[in-house]
Amino acid sequence: MRATAENVEFSVRAPFPEAVGAVAELEVDLLHDHSPALEFLKDESGRLIYYNRAFANIFETGPSLLGKGNAAWLPPAAAERVRMHDQTVLATGAVLEVEEMLPSPNGSRHWLVLKFPLRSESGCPLVGAVAVDVTERRRRETTLSRMAAIMESSHDAVISTTPDGCVVSWNAGAVSMYGYTSAEMDGKPISVLEPPGREGEISTILARIEKGDTVVRYETERVRKDGSVVEVAVSVSPIRDELGELTGVASITRDISDRKRAEEQIVFQSVHDPLTGLPNRALLMERLNDSLAKARRTGRLLAVLFLDLDLFKAINDGFGQRAGDVIFQEVALRLSQSVRGDDMVARIGGDEFIVLLPEITRAEDAVVVARKLLEAVAQPFSCGGRRIDLTTSIGVSVYPDDGQDSEALLRSADNAMERAKVKGRNNYQVSIPELTEEAVQRLALQAGLRQAIEKDELVLHYQPVLSLTTGRIVEMEALVRWQHPERGLIMPGAFIDVAEKAGMMVPLGEWVLSRASRQARTWHDRGFTDLRMAINLSPSQFHERNLISSVRAALSDAALKPETLEIEITEGVAMEDAEITVANLLALRELKVGVSIDDFGTGYSSLSYLKRFPVTTLKIDRSFVTDVVTNSADRGIVRAVVAMAHGLNLNVIAEGVETKEQFSYLRESGCDALQGYWFSHPLPVEKVDALLAEEQERWSAHA
């Protein structure tokens, strides 16, 4: 018998006796045992007359289900729902699409998606059905629905775009954050959210995603519809299809304005006085130290003014602390309005204030400011309708004459302020360092040093550097001495600082460079052609704009090969201005002059900068060598520096080697060379000549 349903034509086998007459001639066309779908036929009574292998695998747990009704393979509730669908199909003769969960004995769930009417050639009404497992699809749909609900309810802006940045979806959080509706942003480039100054940022992120980055997180700013700017944290991820092709980009953006404000407030409070809002001592010291470093490089003056309000306790006692707080705030305002924008006013505690003038041309400029501050404070105050008169005492100190570091300058200004109080208050006093014996000696050294260069009283001593590979002297470090006509040999520690602060280090350094280069040429002419000459540069000399010209002139004057010369700068000098350092070192290396970082490990350099510095040698500071045999921390530092330096193809010289044990350990640690009293003190040129001759004779004997 043939069974038809509209344009569908197929045959069915009915193996149980009651149905043999009705379906004996049906042949399986559409419903067959190899279909992955569950296929079955039922007669008008709801009895199964055919089912395929997929159906049997799920529901046939015992005897055959042929000839049995829904209750034989479905729970009662499900059996009743399926029966009602069967009756609808038989009654209407229409194809019925329905999703009906069919729970199986093994716990799996299948969904009936299609039922259709059939009629055999004898007119027997039948119901055909196909059931497929759409559980995973429904699970995905449920998950997507939940995710959509979560995204829509999120306070964060959840946005998806095409790979080139055109908006596809825009949740309620994005509407709230940016002010644009979903309709306004649909298909628009997301780059409209970029504020001025950040153009191209989003396209850069999209390019990274396209190149394969999985998640890009960053903090930035975005502009709202009303033009206001919001600080945000953004997480960007790719959207890919089953084949891994990039189909879109998803981003989650969080408003971090409150967090940023809180962080800024915490930072502000840590370095500012809570009552006046002025910088506190911590921020003052940071700014003062920075200003001193700049003053040393530029040769400019710097002034510190120490203010103490006169008899302020009487105001607190007479008018109350609230009045005192109001006056403090007014004093802070008046002081700030009396100085330049680059100057700093700080409250360091109680009724004490500091005014920092980071750049002045003359010491008298600080006095002019002190007078303005006296006048500003002396103007009457009004608090609660009452007039309050107040004065202040001011002490003035000026770098470099009144102190070489921050503590010395503050101490000098404090002392001067105390003298102002002794002299009756409401006045200023300047520091008088010339009254101290130390100041007298410093001035005498400064005057004598100027003549020493002219009278050729400076001499060079040389300290050998010993190679731990060959055992030979490979370098001489030039060290300046002052052969004073009255005081004898003065070591550099006594006059270098004076020369630096007096602005004399550039001519002094050029003298050392020229004299040492000529001496290296002399040793080369005597056969020591591999001997290098190391010369230390001061901060002012290294940052001098004519540095490269001076080096080139010294090499030319001595007819010395550039490879022979090695310039040494300390780690601190290298980090004062990293960009200038890189430029100068590159210029030196273009001349083929060697460069070494002296006192390595004692400064504050970043290893990321060290990679950029085109240096050839690191010199481990003596502070790590002194206890290297007994101190595990020093041993670890030495080994780490050696490994790092060799990884960067740099030579390593250990300074301050004074014992055989230190020598042995440093050699085992991989140091390339050493320098120190264990091998040789700094020597005058005639003793160096003798040492070189002795070494030459010794090596000739072994040749």
Structure described in brief:
This protein is α+β, with helices and mostly antiparallel strands.
Can you tell me about this structure?
This protein is α+β, with helices and mostly antiparallel strands. It is built from 25 helices and 29 strands. The strands form six sheets. An eight-stranded mixed barrel has the order 20-21-23-24-25-26-27-28, surrounded by six helices. Strands 4-3-7-6-5 form a five-stranded antiparallel β-sheet. Helix 10 packs across helix 11 (321-337) and helix 16 (505-525) runs parallel beside helix 18. The protein is elongated and about 140 Å long. The model is unreliable at 1-31 (pLDDT under 50).
Which key features would you list for this structure?
disordered N terminus, alpha+beta, 703 residues, elongated, five-stranded antiparallel sheet, eight-stranded mixed beta barrel, single chain
Give a topology summary:
Elements: E1 3-5, E2 8-10, H1 17-23, E3 38-43, E4 48-51, H2 53-59, H3 76-92, E5 100-103, E6 109-119, E7 125-132, H4 135-153, E8 157-161, E9 167-170, H5 172-178, H6 182-185, H7 201-211, E10 216-223, E11 229-240, E12 246-255, H8 257-271, H9 281-298, E13 301-309, H10 312-319, H11 321-337, E14 344-349, E15 352-360, H12 363-378, E16 381-383, E17 386-388, E18 392-399, H13 406-422, E19 428-430, H14 437-454, E20 458-467, E21 473-484, E22 488-490, H15 496-501, H16 505-525, E23 532-536, H17 539-542, H18 547-558, E24 565-570, H19 571-576, H20 578-590, E25 594-600, H21 607-612, E26 617-620, H22 622-625, H23 632-647, E27 651-654, H24 660-668, E28 673-674, E29 683-684, H25 685-702
Parallel strand pairs: 18-19, 21-23, 23-24, 24-25, 25-26, 26-27, 27-28
Antiparallel strand pairs: 1-2, 3-4, 3-7, 5-6, 6-7, 8-9, 8-12, 10-11, 11-12, 13-15, 13-18, 14-15, 16-17, 20-21, 20-28, 20-29, 21-22
